[in-house]
Amino acid sequence: VQLQACGGGMVQTGGSLRLTCAASGRTFSRYYMGWFRQAPGKEREFVGSIRWSTGSTYYADSVQGRFTISRDNAKNTGYLQMNILKPEDTAVYYCAAGARITSAYDYWGQGTQVTVSS
Questions:
Q1: Sorting pLDDT into bands at 50, 70 and 90, what band is 27?
Q2: Which residue spans within the chain are E strands per DSSP?
């Protein structure tokens, strides 16, 4: 599985961004697509994921209600819609494919930088 993430940028507090993750290679239906982020000096953390086969979504408490994950089966593409962004959301964001909701991610895309200015 190959993953390509894009859509990062700089936005002011309260703004929105949408990240896109295009998947190719194996049939994606058996996987979860997860979103993770890593801020400078911090460990990578789980943001949310979507079970590709059913569309069920899962979120970290820190983004619940602000971020929305979706997917387009026909395009084999996942999305992370980020609203009401805060400076603490600043990080490099990664998409990944894995076997579980928050862990066992074996395939990773390159990161895309999201910067939220105060």
A1: confident
A2: 2-6, 9-12, 17-24, 32-38, 45-51, 57-59, 67-72, 77-82, 91-98, 105-108, 112-117
